Each structure stands twice: as structure tokens, then as C-alpha cells.
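COMPLEX REQUEST
Ligand: zinc ion
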Amino acid sequence: MPAMVKVFDTTLRDGEQSPGASLDVKQKVEVARALQALGVDILEAGFPISSPGDFEAVQAVAKAVRRPVIAGLARCSPADIDAAWKAVKPAQFPRIHVFLSTSPLHMQYKLKKSPAEVLKIAAEMTKYARSLCKDIEFSAEDATRSDVNFLAKVVHAVIESGARTINIADTVGYITPDEFERLLKDLQAKVPALGTKAVLSVHCHNDLGLATANSLAAIRAGARQVECTINGLGERAGNAALEEVVMALKTRRAYFGVATNIQTRELTRASRLVAAATGIAVQRNKAIVGANAFAHEAGIHQDGILKQRLTYEIMDAKDIGLQENQLVLGKHSGRHALKRRLHELGYDVADADLPKVFERFKDLADKKKEVFDEDLQVLMEERTGAPREVYALDHVQATSGSGMVPTAAVRLSVDGKLVQGSGTGDGPVDAVYKTIDALVGRQPKLTGYASKAITGGTDAQGEVTVQLVSGGRTLTGRGAHTDIVLASAKAYVNALNRLAALERQRRHKPAVPKKTKK
Ligand code: KIV
Ligand code: ZN
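STATUS: Structure written out below.
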């Protein structure tokens, strides 16, 4: 039997710290369910003290998702630990995850504490957390820029205080794989309880593009928990991508000699769901889940693949849940067939929701000759990515052409009230966006716009992703339609609804102490 490596997913906590990736409670629960189906061992649902919305979301995940351990993050302070405990307590397997910096830089400038004080706080707060919950993880923040002897003292002290997982964080993505392997071996030699009394875990950021390589090096050095996120989301350049670490371990099983509990056929679905919910699209050439990851362009490669797939493919696309484009349904298909196909694709639609989903399917089937699995996935993901709607498009029309001033007419509802107007712009999409701005009385800055075709053919759906900045916040929105101007309008309104949801969340009465960021 190979040794098992536990997969600790932090998409809903570190991943959500990506600019523009905020999720509401409903979205977090939906993603958490997909992570459970994926087979993650530990699911970090959020940082409960950071905002009332996050507290509520962690609690909702703790109630809704039963199989994995549910972790809540806390700084080394009683208020943080209390909030984390209150939020994760309903889980079948709750965990409090406390963290404290151990590097000279962080201790001096961020914490303004001496090493002796940090050592004392780490031990006391771990003990306090352990008095509430039996599963405690301690993270040494910025561990990879810490003095290894001091780090060992802290690790020893927190294990003595009851921590059963010790997480060594490469918080700023600084270390290299061979240095990390050496550091972890050194640490285990200095603290023999690491590996026997407590699980060694690692948490790698991707600032130098080394997060996956560092996580794998750590596993070779004895780490038995790896922290990662779907699509590599996370602070700055993100965290180690779950799909990359897991597929490296699976594809190179003989080399690493370890296994995980991940159901790899769920990877594509989880990746798409997270992209839809956060609005952060996956780059085409992203390893494992990018659109090009299994595409072969060069004639020599295509020829090789046709002769023997293994010539240019080290993984089977089916192992990550990718299916060949399949014609599934058309405009004559009924509700029952739609429900069954969606079930096969991993979406269980409640009977009460079916009429709405069916109506949208019929709209799409009217526009497209062939409805592919990918189209159905987009249809379902749009549902996940949609926050409660303040703004809803009712009608969009744009005209443009050589020698014409591009013009748009838009009708939309704002909190249920219909408003309409028209305007001009540099192109049809610009005209639509300016008209929407005037109707909703907002002027966000459009900082990103990207479009792509979801399937082949001239009747393919176009998918648009936009990024807006408003009041210092970055929001992403996605929309899909066979008409690219409509897809653009949907993406823009999706981002505006996220902005409205965020503003609403901030107006909520706090259930826990005030807002803070890690
Ligand atoms: O990057 C980091 O150090 C973290 C810790 C809270 C584990 O996210
Ligand atoms: Zn992190």
C-alpha cells in the first residue's frame, strides 16, 4: 500500500483571497459540495473572523458538507479562535487552523514581537484552541524565511500544546525545491515528533512559479498533507494548484510512491465550477485543466497521437473527467432527457429548479443546432456564478457597421423595476456598457475583457469574461451566449451584481468582531 498524502483544499479561503474572487454563502456551499465529491480530505472553508459573510459561509459549509474535515482559519488570538470554533463546530470533523509568523522579518515588522514572545503566544494559543477542538493545525507563516532552529522550537512547542498538523508555509513563494527538501528533512531531524505525533504539511505560494514543484519536493521529504487550491487560485500569483499536484502524484506514482484520495475524474468539473463561481477564467495553456492541455496542433504531434496516443500524451483526458465532444440534446429533447444528461455530467437538478433550467436549455437549443456537453456545463455554471440579482437584463440591441456610429439600446430591471435607455460608444460592446452605466448610475473601470468560443462552429456560444474595478474592489463577471454582444452584456451585469452583493454583505450587521484581512 502506498503512503497516503492528505489533500487540504483552501480554495474557499486562500483562493478566495485572489483579487475579484469573492464568493457568497450559496456559492461557497456549492463549491464545497464539489470539493467533497472530488474527495478532498480537509476543506478550509474560510477565515471566520474576517467578515460576517465569511463567518456565515464557514458555518453553512460545516453544516452542509459532512465527509471532509472542515477547517476555519484563526490568528493566534482568543477572539479569532473563538470565531473559528463557533463557525466550524457544526461540522462532523471540525478543525481550527491557527497561524503565526516565525520569520525575523515578520516578527519584527508585522508582529512587533520578539522570538521569545512569538514562541509563548504560539504555545498558549495552540493550547487554548485545543481546549475547544481536538483537531488543531498550526501554521508557521513565512516559515521558509525563518531560522530553522527557531522554527524547530516553535514546532516542538505547538506539538506539545496539542497541534496534530504542522504546516510549513512558503508564504511568499520564495524557496526552491531542493532547499525545501533540505529544510523539511532538517526540521524533522530536529523535531522527531514531526511525522509521528503530528502530520507534516506544506503550503506553497506561486510567486516564482514553483508552488507545485515545491509541494512535490516536500512530499519527497516526508510531508503527508499538501495545501492547495483549484486552478491555483490564491493570494498574488496563487497557491499550488490541486489538479497539478494530484495528477503529478498519479502520473508519476512509481517515482513518488504515494497516493491521494482524490477522484481525479471530478477535476474538470471542479475547475469549471470554481472558474464560474469566482469569475476567474482558467488560462488556455494551464496544466491539466486549461483548454489546450489535451489539444494537439502540430501536424507531427497529431500524426503521432493518431498512431499511438502515448507518443504525445502522458495522461488520459478521461482521467480528469474530460469527455469527447458529444452531441447530447437538441430542441426536441424533453425535460427528462435533460435531467438525466445533467445528472451524468454531475449536476443534480432539484425538480423545483428543473423548469427554469429547461427554459434556458430550450432558449439555447433554439439558437444552436447542436447542444454539446460543454454548452450544458456553461448553462449550469452560469447559474452558480450568478449572485442574487439586483440587475437583470431584459433586452439588448446594438447596431454597428462601417460609417455608422455604434449604438445600443438596453432595457434592464434594477431591483425589479424596469429601466431603459440608449447610448453610443467606440464599438457595439462599448455602447452597451456605457448605456448600462447610465442606467444603473455607476461608472466602474473596465480593466479586463476577454472572449472565447466554447465549442466549434459559427453557431458556437461565445464566453466573455470582464474585470471591473469600483471603489477599490476588483470584480469579475462572466456571460455566455451565441451572440457575442449579449454575452458581453451578461458578463458586465454579472460583475455589477457581484459588486452589489459585496456592498450588501458589507452593510450586514456584524455577527462577529470587525472585518480584518490576513
Ligand atoms: O500563505 C500563508 O502563509 C497562509 C497561512 C495562513 C497558512 O495562507
Ligand atoms: Zn497562503
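REMARKS: The chain has three domains: 3-278, 295-383, 391-506. The longest helix spans residues 484-507.
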